[in-house]
Design brief:
The complex is a heterodimer of chains A (675) and B (259). By secondary structure, chain A is mainly α. Chain A folds into four domains: 223 residues, no CATH class; 122 residues, Fumarate Reductase Iron-sulfur Protein, Chain B, domain 2 (Orthogonal Bundle), CATH 1.10.1060; 139 residues, Rossmann fold (3-Layer(aba) Sandwich); 115 residues, 3-Layer(aba) Sandwich (Rossmann fold), CATH 3.40.50. Chain A contains 29 helices and eleven strands. In chain A, a hairpin with a 2-residue loop joins β1 and β2. In chain A, α1 runs parallel beside α8, α5 packs antiparallel against α6 and α20 packs across α29. Chain A is elongated and about 100 Å long. Chain B is of the alpha/beta class. Chain B has one domain: 3-Layer(aba) Sandwich (Rossmann fold), CATH 3.40.50. Chain B has seven helices and eleven strands. In chain B, the strands form two sheets. Chain B has a nine-stranded mixed β-sheet with strand order 9-8-7-10-6-1-4-5-11, with helices on both faces. Chain B is globular, with a radius of gyration of 21 Å. The termini of chain B are far apart. Chains A and B meet through α18 and α22 of A and β3 and α5 of B.
Amino acid sequence: METLHPAAIKYLGIPGFVFGWFLLIIGVGLFLFIIWQRLKILLKGQTDPRFKDWGQRIWSLVVYGLGQYKQPRYYWAGVLHNMIFGGFIVLSLRSLDLIFSSLGLPVLKPLMESMFGDFYLSMKDIFELIVLAACIWAILRRAILKPKRYEGSHQFEAYLVLGLIGFLMLTDMFYEGSLMLLNPPNTLWLPASRLTAGILSPASPEFLKGLYPLSYWLHLLTFFFFLNFLPLGKHFHIITALPNVLFRKLRKGAIKPARWGVTDITELDKLGAGQIEDFTWKHLLDLFSCTECGRCSDMCPAHTVGRPLSPKMITIKLRDQAYRQYPLLPGKKADNPKEESPEIIGELIKPDEIWSCTTCGACEEECPVMIEYIDKMIDMRRHMIETGQAPKTFNQVLTYFEKTGNPFGKPAVKRADWIKEFPEVPVKVLKEGDRTDVLFFVDSYGSYDPRVQDIVMAIAKGLLQAKIDFGILGPEEWDSGHQVRRLGEEGLFQVLVEQNMAALEAVQFKRIVTTDPHAFNTLKKDYPKPFEVQHYSQFFGELVHKGFLKLQNSVSTADRYTYHDPCYLGRHNEVYQEPRDLLRAIPGLQLVEMERARDRSFCCGGGDVILWHEIEQEEMRMAEKRIQMAREAGANVIVTACPFCLIHFEDAIKTAGLEGQMRVTDLMELLVTVL
Amino acid sequence: MNIIVCVKNVPFTQEVDLALDGSKRDIRKEMLAYVINEWDNYAIEEAIRLKEQFNGNVTAVTLGKEADEEVLRRCLAMGADQAVRIEPGALQADAFMTAAILATALKTMPHDLVLTGVQTDDLNHGMVGTLIAERLGLAHAAVVNSLKPADNKARITIELEGGQDEVAMIHLPALLTIQTGINEPRYVSIMGIRKAAKKELKVIKVEELGVSADDLVPRTIIEEMYLPPETEGAEMLQGDAAAVADEIIRIIKEKGVSL
């Protein structure tokens, strides 16, 4: 006699499918309620236009979502994750089949009994074994290896969910295994079910008849429990990660406006993010999507040197706050509106967590689900600036920016004075209406800082040697505003942009070449007009590649060079190759790579906050850490292509007492010596 | 508590190579950026803090042209309730006239406390505050670096020479000239200043105030201005860091600084 399907069996006179319907209605009903409660949080968020560029978005979904492209950056964890992820994709059809059949509506039965079904059921069995193995492995890994990046994550939840997933696999395996013994022969290739059937072979038919429906209903019960458990914690990512990837930020390096859709910021009653509701809906979705894997913090240079910042904890703390404010079951209303939506900066997020960030982007580069940190940091900084909570040391600097267009408070009229220092190199200062091929955007550090002027002069020399028609804006150029925007002074940034836009539109040029990756980034990403902007490494890369410039002198083969990718050239703009090609083109140059290179480059300390605000809690300077890394790679010369990296590394070599053993040079300084 | 703060927009001259204008009685100002006088920044901050603590009303007053309204907008952005600009027209006011004009304007405005900066960055007379107090018959103290009101009095600390402070009680209403360092002035964002542009700003012409003609005659006349002659006097210290440091200490001691 054919064994009855569990949905057809009567339990205390009630047919199984009644339980099926009961489970479905309760399970799905509760799930929809929870999702709706969570969705209401997103609806409280600010607007964020992410509903265009669908081609790019869907491609992201394919690559980073379905392809899980970022997972193997942490190799074994990634392999484990993708074993489970793959299992979920494959087993989703199985779950549907089980749910439909529990309702007495076996709509997928014909499919499962087809040729495809035979193949699918084998696949299902293989993946159940894979997922089960991955769960066991993952539990052991957490328990034995205790990776540091999980500190502060919800560990119990992780074990519970791994246990639940494993249990789902086992119940299905025992369900199928007992059926196999009750209903022989089964000719399909079902390794998982055969395994359980083997284990169960000594059992009596009565036991099997009990186990068979029991494992079936336990499987479904666990399934619905799991479904409802997901949105309560970090496993919400199983639902939200794919949309989070779909709606990801597409313009790396750009900073979001104070409020999307608002051009005149004085219309806003507040600026930046001081409460949960001030974040955009996408930034709130980020909170839901965090898996607490801690890769962000593991890669965060601030975290690495012991600064009080862990990107992962920022997300966890904000998420906890969001859930406290919007609980699933609404409690009694707070009497005071301030208690209803408390300030997030102060107790929850400490000011120095916010100022520790160098906006280097290592966290965002690493996050498998594309969570954004920089825009959130800047929004919190904006709030601090507007409410007078920013470090007092910024006051003077920001006033200098406003009054003189540079952070030193030096007179604007002296901005082009550096050209007097090098009378042998004529540099054209553009006047209104002038025309030039290359507009060399020097920016403030290049114009006034004596050390950075060396780089600027090297660029000018290189341009002259290549017979490029170029000019500078001189006193008409104001600071690019990269730092100002990233310090959170949005209004001042707009003032600087207005000034520079007027100056840039008063002259004619084909492209802008910058000294500094920061100016390059902001002119390219934050300015209202799409100028053709290049960092000097790209521009000279082209010149050398096309043969307009020859690198003829060789450098000593005794030196080992390594290239440090500046964050705003590398990660934020993906210029990795040009500087390396230039270095390789230098005769005799021995180049070694650091372990953390390219998109995993380790920030030097940054080009903004660090210049004006000291983070006291720090084990060592980021630049010192980076120098260590260069030494570990066997290099004695660090080449960089950003003035701030240069300044920080020079300091770090001194403070680490490595003068004579290590040196740092800017790529352009090196290039002019070999021209 | 009604607090009035007198503020001034002054040229920002850090590292500027100042040049004289054609008359040789003033410097060329057209290329200079203007900022709130540093002492006034502390004074307005102190007033706002008092208001935040004890409630009340803060009015910022300046004698200046339309372009100088920026300094008032800044005060409004910091938290001042009203702002008044006195339009000087063609008048070139010295410290005496400035005090006369401000004192006349202040007469009609209720005040428990008047704050000014100790001096201004541009001319450094350090007189205006005290002159206003004399004209209004207010109790006054100069170079105040701490201020704690209690009932109708205030406990103040006055900075003396040589790092000494004098603690005193002063009856209100009073005028105090505020020294830098009394507080840490807050940052006012550009958005704050732009928003403050929407607040009301009252403009009064000097002639509407009814200042006596005698008070509108300057008591000081600048006959000539000149740039300080370049002098010798730079001494380059030679040697390693330790030797240079020793030398610096010797020089500092020689100049009479006790270390």
